[in-house]
Amino acid sequence: MPEIYSVLLVMLLILINLFNTKHASASVLEVQPLIDSQSRNIIRYCVDPDWLPYEAIVDGRHTGVSSDYLALLTKYTGLTFMLVPTTSWRQSLELLKQGRCELTPILNQTPKRDQYLYFSEVFFKSPNVLVSLKSQPFLQGFENIGDRLLAIPKDYRLVEYIQQYYPNINTILTNSERQGLEKVANGEADVFVGSMFSVNAYIQQQGLTSLKIAGWGGPEDELRMGVIHAKQDLLPQINAGLAKITQADHIAIYKKWHNITVIEDIDYSLVIPVLTALGTFILFLLYRTISIGKYNVHLEANNKQLQQLQLQLEQKNSDLDFLAQHDPLTKLYNRQYFNQTFLDTRQAPTEQNHHNNIGLIIIDIDFFKAINDKHGHAIGDKILVQVAQVLQTSVRERDVVARWGGEEFVIVCQHVQLINAQELCQRITDELTHFHFYNDIKVTCSYGIALLGEGEPIEACFERADAALFKAKQSGRNQYCSA
User: Fold this and answer.
1) Which terminus of the chain, N or C, has less C-beta within 10 A?
2) How would you label 70-79 residue by residue, b for 16+ Cβ within 10 Å and e otherwise?
């Protein structure tokens, strides 16, 4: 009899250990039976639980850009990653300092973080932007913030950057990017700075239509993986795995998360009854063991399906330049193309550009929010596409039309005088009047015009056009003003 009790006790301990293992997502393995823990290299990692589309924890599972890159790293290196859930980015950093987390998959390198982390090669880049109310002027950069109150998420790299290079800016620290954007929308802060991809995602999700991107926010994010000093021997293996990631892999991840949609994925197989007796408890653990075996089969099938999808994406998305430079809705050039082509020069125009008589026209659809509220966002998107068509057919072949964001567009004209730019605005106005829009909606626009002055930086010309647009809207809309 003592031998039987001993056997039963050992079996119970093994089953309890099996019960304590956690469910794994389809992208990153977060569980491993204790019997294999000594034979596989398990790396505990922490993430920012509220930083979509880069990363987040939804229903206890890791999702976002970093999740997809960890899945690729698992494929190319054979490393196993186990998520340590946290409730804030600050908590994740604390666990990294304590060594309770050994890796974090996507962050910027800073001198403070160098004290407890070693960093991989850069594998993802993204610009930072300034966000303000639409009624505020175009700011360009930190140097134009003045006495405005700037909101920044605490423990983000940008806090150190502002403290070092712009110590006189008035700042307020927020718990997350989402909270910072809400403070600007509510008038508790004047400007917010954050990553362009996550800012766009939050504005779309929360319907913060009163906000606009008002300029660039310091250096772009150069995102890496960070490992604690005690695990620095992992870096060569991680860098080797990152080097194997193909351009098709990068394109697939970029396209997946560029226009983010949050889907709540609830795994109902985890809902278990409350055990009230030892017999029921043992039966459940036996069922759990069988389920894990079935799940491994299901996971292998999912991996094969993912490989097929990756091959399809590789075939259909070979033109990365178009994806990076064009607005996916209207097919016009996007803000990134406009800034790289016209605003990133940071120098006065050349003599040749001056003789080209460059003109800027900023266009804003009048009362577009009312169209969305009355007819819905699907009709609003169709209106944007139709307005883009009118603009493209109204300009000359050498003119550049770009979607600046939301309901705003920019036209860059070469070899024009002020009268030519005004005639173009009037021509667009006439076309809009006769154009048949969806649901017979009447669409008008307001215009701000500025010609590039001799020796004038194009950023200053853009600000004058923006101010002229504001004047046109204040004067009753459906008209153009010149600066």
Assistant:
1) N
2) bbbbbbbbeb
- Per-residue model confidence as pLDDT tens digits over 102-144: 999 999 999 999 999 999 999 998 888 899 998 888 877 888 8
Residue 388 phi/psi, 5° resolution?
A: -60, -40
**Torsion, CA 289, CA 295, CA 299, CA 302, rounded to 10:** 170
Give the CA distances from residue 136 to residues 132, 185, 264, in Å, rounded to whole numbers and listed in that order: 6, 12, 36
Instruction: Report how far Cα 347 is from the mean position of its chain's Cα atoms.
Output: 29
- Token pair for residue 19? 């019960």
Q: What is the pTM of this model?
A: 0.45
Q: ω before 137 within 30° of 0 (cis)? A: no
Burial of 288 (0-12, 13-18, 19+ CB in 10 A): middle
> Pairing relation of β-strands 42-45 and 80-83?
parallel
Distance of alpha carbon 329 from alpha carbon 405, whole angstroms: 11
- Angle (CA) 122-124-129 rounded to 5° is 115
Contact residues for 42 (Cβ-Cβ < 8 A; gap 6+): 32, 80, 81, 82
